[in-house]
Amino acid sequence: MKTKNPLKNRKKMSVLLFFAALIIYVIFAGRFSYIMIKGEVNGENLAKNVNNLYTRSSVLEANRGTIYDVGGDPVAMDATSYSLYAVLTDKWSSKASKPQYVVDKEKTAKVLAQYIAMSEEEILNRLNQDQDQVEFGTAGKNLSYEIKKNIENEKLPGIEFTNTPVRLYPNGVFASHLVGVAQMPTDKNGEAKKGTELTGIMGIEKVYNDLLTGKDGGKEYQKDSFGYVLPNSKVKTTEPKDGSDIYLTLDKRMQVYLESVMSDVYDKYEPKAMTATLMDPKTGAIVAASQRPTFNGTTKEGINQLWQNLLVENTYEPGSTFKVLTLAASINEGVFNPDEWYKSGSVKVADRVIRDVNRNGWGTITYLEGLERSSNVAFVNLAEKMNMDVWKNYLDQFGIGKSTQSGLLNEQKGSNTYKYAAEKATTSFGQGLTVTVFQMMQAFSAVANNGNMMKPQYISKTVDPNTGEEKIIEPEIVGKPISEETARQTREYLKSVVYGEHGTGRRYQIDGYEIAAKTGTAQIVNPETKSYYSGGNNYLYSVVGMAPADDPEYILYITVQQPEITDGSISGGDVVAEVFNPVMKRALEYSHVNEEENANENQVDMPEVTGHSKEDALSLLEETPLDITIIGNGDKVVQQLPLPQEKLIENQKVVLMTNGAMTMPDMSGWSKNDVLKVSEITGIEFVFDGEGYVSSQSLPPEALLSGDEQIKIELQPKSAED
């Protein structure tokens, strides 16, 4: 029997171990070589992982654009709100000398009760809960910076705050449905979602959300395992880009005043709804606009009463204020004769009898009296005189049944079926069709702005704060449904509504200013019965006024739906007047103040040139921005108007008379007041025909002024091209 050789077995085992080790080494070497060459393990980039391990980044948040009024006062701006919470556990306190938890619960409750809307007892109950930390419900949320600072000054251990970006509306109730609201998206518990940003949910804030929203930037840098910045490492910074700012056409002074007046009237009469819109007809700029119900943009108080923007989303039958358009169209067609007579009371159209508010009428009256009394029959007659197809064409040109393309959410087009004879006839007095407030303002602008119909504008410009680039929103003429002369005549006749013996708008007179206006009392459809309400105050009361009547600076349109009137001596028109009169008066006063301020900025002191040679006088006046006219062919100035030291504005007319024979100047384009300066300085009387500016003169320029003949001056309004 052979025995195994242990030495031989050990040699075999050594060889096997050698080759096994060699194979393992080759495998590891190959693997490491692969990793070194590819830089990956299981598809993961090792360099990237190392970079991520030591790279830190932070977000540089961009600001949402600010919304300003026309003068640059903020209407909507970014802010921060603070939420209060209390730490009740000591496990996060590293030093006993500086506790980071509530130590004296009774004292803490007593102090906090002074700053939040929660009783001392309720706060103490929260602090006694068996939790690591507690919050204080809605009472502890949306705290201002001032309240946060006051609480921090009390130095209460364990009382901490979290902060959340919010949108602040510093004026409270301020064209709230037009401006809108932006807020942080929330979860089902009403908490702001992390990683989100302020987002517009209503009004301009929503329509222009992309423009207002900025783009966040960030910082990226290298740190070691202990959190220290690595030496010589570069910080990569991407600057944030703030959202663009929006400047509205709203004037804060007028808007705040309008809101105050609207609130007083709304609280007093509790109507179902109200709107008020003040517009500059020359540009279409909305100077102030409001509605009721409304809400406070910051606190959101009242926001759930009505989300609808009544200026563009609500349609209604306008009633007799619509007669402004019928009047303008009939004047433009040459069928309105103020002195023509007609039988008031009722008129039959097809199988329907249309009546005046006074069902028996006022007998046979003139069309001007019919306008003053707001006779439906008069306006049906005018529409028939024009021809109903012609009247429909005017409705189209005035934009009835069409969107104003305001850009605001859910803008309605209104309706005008215009199918049956009676239905066509009732449109002449604002029944049987529906409109929006913006449509009415746009149409009214044609009458107030010499035939040029202006698109309503609520934004004056946008500004990119990153580049300073401004985008001006230019006024937009969207049509010319009537002529300049028609517009002037329409306003002239509308004055009779306010100042005429039988005018329905006599309550809208404002001392010191001439008003052109039209009143309205429109029936309202009962949504349940689909028929008109009857009796009581179930009407939409309204007025549109233009002032000053000869050259309107403002259109003010008010609607009040179904006010609660308990005093029998007060009418729906009286309620409307309580808004119209103070607001229009304030607007005109502000306009006058602005004119004076502008005049002061451009004032010139009139020098004394009487007694100077003509050449010296002209040389002296060349340095002033005044418009100089010489009367006479002499070489010395003997009279001047205006007199020395009078305050003048740029380009004001100055008349100088020399010692030679008096000569007639070329007065083309002069105002009546400037012509009267020549009359005063020469003693020669002029006879005027028309209104406006000089279009012709019976004595040619440079002819001698002898005073033996009567000099006739023709005046005409300036055309839109002038």
From TrEMBL:
Signal peptide per UniProt: none
Segments forming domain PASTA: 600-660
Compartmental location: Cell membrane
GO biological process per UniProt: cell division; cell wall organization; peptidoglycan biosynthetic process; regulation of cell shape; response to antibiotic
A Pfam family per the record: PBP_dimer
Gene3D superfamilies (alphabetical): 2.20.70.70, 3.30.70.2110, DD-peptidase/beta-lactamase superfamily (3.40.710.10), Penicillin-binding protein 2a (Domain 2) (3.90.1310.10)
Keyword entries, A-Z: Antibiotic resistance, Cell cycle, Cell division, Cell membrane, Cell shape, Cell wall biogenesis/degradation, Membrane, Peptidoglycan synthesis, Repeat, Transmembrane, Transmembrane helix
GO cellular component, one term: plasma membrane
Keyword Ribosomal protein: no
Membrane topology classification: Single-pass membrane protein
Molecular function GO terms recorded: penicillin binding
Coiled-coil blocks: none
CDD domains assigned to the protein according to its UniProt record, in alphabetical order: PASTA_Pbp2x-like_1 (cd06576), PASTA_Pbp2x-like_2 (cd06575)
Location (main, coarse): membrane
Family according to the record: Belongs to the transpeptidase family.
Function summary: A transpeptidase that forms peptide cross-links between adjacent glycan strands in cell wall peptidoglycan (PG). Part of the divisome machinery that synthesizes the septal cross wall. Beta-lactams inactivate the PBPs by acylating an essential serine residue in the active site of these proteins.
UniProt name for this protein: Penicillin-binding protein 2B
Organism this protein belongs to: Pisciglobus halotolerans
